Amino acid sequence: MIENIILVTVTVLIIGLAVLYIYKAKKSGRKCIGCPDGCSCSSKDNGCLCCSRQKDN
User: Fold this and answer.
1) How far is CA 6 from the centre of its chain?
2) 46 CB-near residues (< 8 Å, 6+ apart)
């Protein structure tokens, strides 16, 4: 019983922190969260060049 409560609490905490990270990143203007180039590859046209190359594949 207590193990289930701990498991659910940890899972909710992890998901909550991930959502908070995404929210803060989008609010700060990042167009490409999780970009392997650290969002330093931005283009004026469509955001991140490395991510747009990945989408084409």
Assistant:
1) 25
2) 52
30 pLDDT band (50/70/90 cuts)? confident
Using DSSP's 3-state secondary structure scheme, residue 32 falls into: coil
- Helical H segments across the chain, by residue range: 2-27, 49-56
**Choice between 20 and 38, residue whose per-residue pLDDT is larger:** 20
Tokens of 35: 């970009």
Note whether 48 and 39 are within 8 A (CB): yes
Across the range 11-38, mean pLDDT stands at: 84
CA–CA separation, 6 vs 8, rounded Å?
Answer: 6
Question: By C-alpha distance, which of 40, 29, 57 is closest to 49?
Answer: 40
